């Protein structure tokens, strides 16, 4: 079990599709710097290898934009919407997915071995996974189950349209959350992130004018820090 110094939170960070923990850490350097007085960010890598680098995550709206980490070495994912092709598209409807339970178990293992964590942060497909974890924690109750996060930050998140994932969206999630998304995101259009927000009770929402990335400029830093301040023991 690991702990941070008093007054500093520990946050588990969940990368997007075709990323991995190391690449996500590198690409969130500005965020780590912005939050260094508030939190330690710990990065996890998904267990599923994206075996064909030519298969990009396609934008849900059908445009040609791709997720900016499409060239990541050793690309990983949290589940595949097309089990046969082992590929993923956020807007792809499917009856069943491949790999989600393996990924949830990977998160449980990290929580057991490297926890406790105060919060969890996810980007893109990782944010969608975080939303599922929030739902599982709420369904299990505060005193049960492997997850005991106090808050979540979901960046460019979305609600999975896979039929077997509908169980995650049956009850409003009460965990405190901050939802962040770009108004010009062509990979996960903002209406998909807003749809995810609707499944949470009293969510805090931060929008920015950019696209598919983790924003960490001064306006976003202020909101992140104000949100985290509510969970830091004075």
TrEMBL record:
Q: Which reaction does it catalyse?
A: a carboxylic ester + H2O = an alcohol + a carboxylate + H(+)
Entry's Gene Ontology BP terms:
response to retinoic acid
The record's keywords, sorted A to Z, are: Hydrolase, Serine esterase
Single GO cellular component term: cytoplasm
Enzyme Commission (EC) number: 3.1.1.1
Region (Disordered), start-end ranges: 56-75
The text of the family note is: Belongs to the LovG family.
Q: What does this protein do?
A: Exhibits ester hydrolase activity with a strong preference for long-chain alkyl ester substrates and high selectivity against a variety of short, branched, and substituted esters. Is able to hydrolyze ester bonds within a wide range of p-nitrophenyl derivatives (C2-C14) in vitro, with a strong preference toward substrates of >8 carbons.
Q: What is this protein called?
A: Esterase OVCA2
Q: Which organism is it from?
A: Acipenser oxyrinchus oxyrinchus
Q: What is the lineage of its organism?
A: Eukaryota, Metazoa, Chordata, Craniata, Vertebrata
């Amino acid at each position: 079990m690991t702990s941070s110094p008093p007054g500093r939170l520990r946050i588990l960070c969940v990368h997007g599709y075709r990323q991995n923990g190391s690449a996500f850490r590198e690409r969130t350097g500005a965020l780590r710097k912005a939050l260094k007085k508030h939190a330690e960010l710990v990065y996890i890598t998904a267990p599923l290898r994206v075996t064909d680098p030519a298969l990009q995550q396609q934008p849900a709206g059908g445009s040609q934009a791709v997720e900016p980490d499409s060239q990541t070495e050793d690309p990983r994912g949290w589940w595949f919407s097309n089990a046969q092709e082992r590929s993923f598209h956020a807007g792809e409807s499917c009856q069943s997915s491949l790999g989600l339970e393996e990924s949830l178990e990977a998160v449980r293992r990290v929580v057991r071995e490297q926890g406790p964590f105060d919060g969890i942060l996810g980007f893109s497909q990782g944010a969608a996974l975080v939303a599922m974890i929030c739902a599982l924690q709420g369904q299990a109750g505060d005193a049960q189950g492997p997850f005991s996060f106090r808050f979540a930050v979901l960046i460019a998140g979305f609600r999975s349209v896979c039929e077997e994932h509908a169980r995650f969206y049956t009850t409003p999630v009460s965990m405190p959350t901050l939802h962040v998304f770009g108004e010009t995101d062509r990979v996960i259009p903002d209406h998909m992130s807003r749809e995810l927000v609707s499944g949470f009770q009293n969510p805090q929402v931060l929008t920015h004018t950019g696209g598919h990335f983790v924003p960490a400029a001064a306006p976003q830093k202020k909101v992140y820090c104000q949100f985290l301040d509510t969970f830091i023991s004075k």
